Structure formats: structure tokens, C-alpha cells
């Protein structure tokens, strides 16, 4: 059973690289939705089925697989800028950085003082790798919408870490984290719309200069 | 002894069949009848009867190119096991020799292309070398991972080791390897997402532009060498992707030939369903294959 979970985590790692390497926002949104659904199913696979784990699975799949992609697609259709802005590192640079981050995550996870039954699992390195990939996406993308996707990836990484604790964590904590996330995406969606309406470009790197738009 | 004979006969006879099957599949997808299945054989026969024209600006390198390429590819074919049988030649570490025999062939193809002094061929040579130096690490890392899994350093041991139990034990890394190898198979043989073998626009093609100036038997050798390379890499891919084993050796040969033809059909389907990638996206795809192979290594070594 746990080997199947490991293979799903490999899929999650590949989706990280896909998101880092793609130049289409739509592909990235779909990929992050798939990643969310895969992660949402994970608690069912690694823990015995209980009432509150079923609830968590349901909420996570609904939020990450349906709700957030819907919000993001909504934001994407409102802004009319579809021009492709290469990230600061370039796409190839992003992919390489993601791969290096993954390898470093594996090296680092091997040195962590983990509980013996967590040592063999892929969970901890996958969590670290996803968090790092999220950081890379967040830091190097220019468009606000791609930065939101990086933020989601970061959250997914934290969720993978949480998988180790799902049994011990009360439902309220999970629900609170999800609510935070959706509120965050809402705010970002509104901001993206605002940026699209106010400025001629949605390149966030140009917004560091403060001056009057004429 | 009989296995050795079958190996030699197969490796000499089967290669032109694969492009024929691919073309037939593509024709069926497009709703055409297509050329006969054995058309590549007729083409080879026709080319071998023709005379050769050499440009006055070329040197011996141009004449040696097709010969050396074909010889190197044939030598590489002796190291790859077909089906479940030991290859004719095998020693520890022959996987490196295998990879570099293919590289030697490519070196001479590109050297011959540069020797003509034509700007188109120089462009093609530059592309071929750029893409292959991204595809080579994938092949090497894949062989490295497989040799770690099988505990053997020769191609025979590496490739005949993979089995259903191995797939159950380390399926995740094998899936990554299969995906990476498939991309390499398409890229190295200039199949569609990377290069369009049927186009005749010099600006967009890679392999065809390299061999524009060859004619007659030399061109036949190049066509045959390309088909041979396709079948070698297909055999390599099949060993990882489809570890079918049977007790009966003759059934094994049959299964191998059928799976080769099926793989050619799969390549034809992929070619029919995809458009050629923009040239600047090709390195990114190969980089992705490289990252996948590296992941597989991390998973295995961990």
C-alpha cells in the first residue's frame, strides 16, 4: 500500500517539474488541480479509513480540484493579457533549479532525525521538494497568476508534510488551513483583476517602480 | 549457435521494416492507403543500383561518413540483446562502448555534412549535435540506473534483468526511465515531436538536411543505418518497458519481433497525433527527459 503512495508522490514531483517548465498558464492550472486531487486522495491510502479522514479527503479534493482551479480560470479569462513572459531564470533554468532542489530535498531528508517508520517513506523528501519548487515558482515568475500557482504548490508541499500527521491532527486545523488558502486565492484573484484593469501590463516586476501612470 | 544466427539475420533484415510499418500506420491514420509495407526495402535496392555523385569540394571524410556510420551502428547492434537471448558480443562495461559507438556514427555523419561546406548542412549538423548532447545523458543515466538495479555492467546483464518482479519492486523509477527512453528514442531517430522525417524544407529539418548531398549507395547506407539505429534503440526500449519472458526460446524470438512491430505502430500513432515541436522547445523536452532519468536515479540510489 505504501509503495503505491510512493508512486503517487513521484507523480506529484513530476507535476512540480511540469509546472516549472510550462509556458502556458492553463496547463499549469490544470496540473496544479491534478496535483491537489492526487494529494487529496493520499490520506485515504496511507491511513485506516475513518470518519474525519473521509471528510478531509472530500474537502481537500473539492477545494483543490474544483474550487481553486475554477477561481483561477475565472481570473485568467478576465485579464486579456495572454502574452508569454519568460520567468527570470528562463524555463530551462526553472526546470534545472527544480531538479536540483529535489535532489537537495532527498539529501536533506536522509539526514533528518525522523521517526524510524517515516525514514523509508518518500513523504518527507517529496514535501521538501514541493515546497522548494513552490518557492522557485513564486520567486521567479513575472505574472501574478503564475505566482499564485507557485503559492499553491508551496501549500501542497506543506500538505504532504501534514500527511504524516493526518491521524493526529484535528479536523478543525485542516479546515482552517483550507479556508485560509481559499481566502488567499480569492484575494489574489481580485488583485489580479485589479492589476489587469489598472495597468497596461501584468508583469509584476515592472510594479516595483513607483510613478504616476499617464 | 542457432541463436547467434537468428540474431544476425534479424538485425540485418528487420530494420527497414520498422519505417515501413510507421509509414503505413501514419497513412492509415490519415485515411490513405500508403506505400507498400516493404517500400523501404525497394528503396534500398533502388539506391544500391545507382551511381554516386561527389562534389569536387569534398574530401575523403565525405566518402567515409556513411561507411563509418553504418559500421559503428552495426557494431553497436552486436552488443544489444534481442529478445531474451545473449548478444553475440558482451563484456563488462560494454554499455559505455555501446553509447559511444552510436556517438561515433553521429560524429562521422555530422563531419561528412560539414565537409560539404554547404550552409544548410552546417546548420543541420549544429542542430543534430545540440540535440544529441542533450539526449546522450538521458541514455547514460538510464543505463546507469538499470545497471544499479541489475548489479551488472554489461548490456546483456542489464537488459535481460528487468522482469515483472522488478517492475513491482521499483515501478516508479522504471516508469520514469521508460518515459525518458521513449523521448530519446524519438529524438535520436528524428521522429515527429522532435523532427519531421518527411519534410523537405531545409530550414526545419535535422537529419535529412545532414545527408542532402549523399546519393546512390552512400545514401542507401545512410537510410539503412538510420533504420538500424531505430531498431537498436527500440530493442533497448522494449527490454525496459516490456519484460516479457518465456521458457521457449523460439517463442521468445516471435514475441520480440511482434513487440518491435507493435512499437513501430505506437511510434506511428504518436507521429499522427502530434505536431512537430518548435525548435526552441526541443531542448526543453530533452531536459525534461533528463530530469526524469535523474529522478529515477535518485529514487534508486536513495
UniProtKB/TrEMBL annotation, chain A:
It is found in: Cell membrane. The chain crosses the membrane at residues 6-22, 27-46, 52-76, 88-109, 121-139, 148-165, 171-192. Its main location: membrane. Keywords: Cell membrane, Membrane, Transmembrane, Transmembrane helix. It is a multi-pass membrane protein. This is Hydrogenase. It comes from Oryzomonas sagensis.
UniProtKB/TrEMBL annotation, chain B:
It comes from the Bacteria. Signal peptide: none annotated. This is Hydrogenase. Pfam families: NADHdh (PF00146). It is found in: Membrane. It comes from Oryzomonas sagensis. The keyword Transmembrane helix applies. InterPro entries: ComplexI_Subunit1, NADH_UbQ_OxRdtase_su1/FPO. Keywords: Membrane, Transmembrane, Transmembrane helix. It is a multi-pass membrane protein. The chain crosses the membrane at residues 60-83, 95-114, 134-159, 166-187, 218-238, 250-270, 282-301.
Amino acid at each position: 500500500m505504501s509503495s503505491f503512495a510512493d508512486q503517487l508522490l513521484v507523480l506529484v514531483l513530476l507535476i512540480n517539474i511540469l509546472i516549472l517548465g510550462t509556458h502556458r498558464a492553463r496547463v499549469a492550472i490544470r496540473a496544479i488541480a491534478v496535483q491537489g486531487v492526487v494529494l487529496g486522495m493520499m490520506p485515504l491510502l496511507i491511513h485506516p479509513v475513518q470518519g474525519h479522514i473521509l471528510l478531509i479527503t472530500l474537502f481537500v479534493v473539492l477545494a483543490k480540484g474544483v474550487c481553486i482551479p475554477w477561481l483561477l480560470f475565472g481570473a485568467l479569462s478576465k485579464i486579456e493579457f495572454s502574452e508569454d513572459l519568460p520567468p527570470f531564470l528562463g524555463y530551462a533554468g526553472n526546470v534545472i533549479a527544480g531538479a536540483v532542489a529535489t535532489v537537495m530535498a532527498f539529501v536533506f531528508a536522509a539526514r533528518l532525525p525522523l521517526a524510524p517508520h517515516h525514514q523509508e517513506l518518500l513523504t518527507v523528501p517529496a514535501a521538501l521538494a514541493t515546497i522548494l519548487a513552490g518557492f522557485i515558482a513564486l520567486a521567479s515568475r513575472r505574472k501574478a497568476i503564475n505566482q499564485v500557482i507557485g503559492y499553491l504548490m508551496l501549500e501542497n508541499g506543506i500538505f504532504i508534510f501534514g500527511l504524516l500527521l493526518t491521524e493526529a491532527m484535528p479536523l478543525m486545523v485542516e479546515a482552517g488551513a483550507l479556508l485560509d488558502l481559499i481566502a488567499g486565492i480569492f484575494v489574489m484573484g481580485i488583485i489580479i483583476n485589479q492589476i489587469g484593469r489598472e495597468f497596461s501590463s501584468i508583469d509584476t516586476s515592472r510594479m516595483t517602480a513607483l510613478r504616476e501612470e499617464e | 549457435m542457432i541463436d547467434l544466427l537468428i540474431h544476425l539475420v534479424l538485425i540485418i533484415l528487420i530494420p527497414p521494416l520498422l519505417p515501413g510499418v510507421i509509414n503505413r500506420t501514419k497513412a492509415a491514420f490519415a485515411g490513405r492507403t500508403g506505400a507498400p509495407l516493404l517500400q523501404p526495402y525497394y528503396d534500398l535496392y533502388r539506391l544500391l543500383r545507382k551511381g554516386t555523385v561527389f562534389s569536387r569540394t569534398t574530401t575523403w571524410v565525405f566518402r567515409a561518413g556513411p561507411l563509418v556510420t553504418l559500421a559503428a551502428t552495426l557494431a553497436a547492434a552486436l552488443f544489444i540483446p534481442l529478445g531474451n537471448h545473449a548478444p553475440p558480443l558482451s563484456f563488462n562495461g560494454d554499455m559505455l562502448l555501446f553509447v559511444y559507438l552510436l556517438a561515433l556514427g553521429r560524429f562521422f555523419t555530422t563531419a561528412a555534412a560539414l565537409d560539404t561546406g554547404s550552409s544548410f548542412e552546417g546548420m543541420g549538423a549544429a542542430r543534430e549535435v545540440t540535440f544529441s548532447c542533450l539526449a546522450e545523458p538521458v541514455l547514460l543515466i538510464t543505463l546507469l540506473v538499470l545497471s544499479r538495479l541489475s548489479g551488472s555492467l554489461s548490456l546483456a546483464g542489464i537488459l535481460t534483468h528487468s522482469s515483472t518482479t522488478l517492475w513491482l519492486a521499483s515501478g516508479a523509477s522504471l516508469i520514469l526511465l521508460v518515459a525518458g527512453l521513449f523521448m530519446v528514442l524519438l529524438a535520436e531517430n528524428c521522429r515527429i515531436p522532435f523532427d519531421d522525417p518527411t519534410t523537405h524544407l531545409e530550414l526545419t529539418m535535422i537529419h535529412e538536411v545532414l545527408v542532402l548531398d549523399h546519393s546512390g549507395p552512400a545514401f542507401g547506407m545512410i537510410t539503412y543505418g538510420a533504420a538500424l539505429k531505430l531498431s537498436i534503440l527500440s530493442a533497448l526500449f522494449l527490454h525496459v518497458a516490456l519484460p516479457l519472458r518465456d521458457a521457449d526460446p523460439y517463442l521468445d524470438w516471435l514475441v520480440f519481433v511482434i513487440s518491435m512491430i507493435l512499437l513501430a505502430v505506437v511510434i506511428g500513432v504518436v507521429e499522427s497525433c502530434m505536431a512537430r515541436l518548435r525548435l526552441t522547445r526541443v531542448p526543453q523536452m530533452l531536459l525534461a527527459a533528463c530530469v526524469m532519468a535523474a529522478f529515477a536515479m535518485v529514487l534508486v540510489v536513495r
